[in-house]
């Protein structure tokens, strides 16, 4: 990394983007071997929020009979209200552009308050059912609160909770593992279409937000969710026996791959580019095997077995080459 930074600085100097005096100052600064612990400190703050909320959950579980529901809910409400009061008091208010708290701890207090809100509403619904049998409302309310907090306090972590809650409201569990294991896309076509529609809505909201310059730095969060949701829903349906169904989702995956190929270059987002390639590769292989399934390869079976390792090795080499080319292009 040190050698890479030195080379990058030398390239800037050779291109005339920095003066010789600036070049020397950069070299002197780097020779001091000063490094930032900002990332490490934020990681510990994030872990502390997770451990605190996990501790509350364990406390409730182990002492539910001795503490009582009212006492637990009251404690959650008080702690949540204190966190929100402190955050609102020290925030700069809503702004369309990217904003930050003067102290980074406040950012994690917003996250804590939001998680506690979700716990409070979930516990309240589970114990007293204020929303009756409409469990979707118990998901929608904290989702709305999360979206409000994400935009008001400019918090990406809370935005992630908000989008996850929105996905849960339409019947999804938004992680690649849970999407494949807990959501039966194959049996429920309506769930698959809902997933695709949610992904499309996230993309449209991103486009609209960029057009009106509303929190444009949130684009990567929305697009990441959209990429995973659309691609996994499409891939899960490519094996469907109904030709009309799998052709539709093949088209959805092709369109998604093309769009995220273009947008990954536009945003210079390596994560979108990598997952776009992975999902596109998986979909292409499924379609290839469907094609092979319709052709009798009994006379060429040995040849196919011989070519299979070559194919996968070539795929790995091509994947690495694509990543290198992408990194090179966005760095220029």
Automatic annotation (TrEMBL):
UniProt KW keywords: Membrane, Transmembrane, Transmembrane helix
Transmembrane segments: 43-61, 67-88, 108-128, 134-153, 158-174, 186-208, 220-238, 244-261, 273-292, 304-323
Record carries keyword rRNA-binding: no
InterPro entries reported in the protein's UniProt record: DUF2157
Keyword Transmembrane helix: yes
Superkingdom of source: Bacteria
Pfam families: DUF2157
Domain DUF2157: 12-158
Name listed for the protein in its UniProt record: Predicted membrane protein
Organism of derivation: Flavobacterium phragmitis
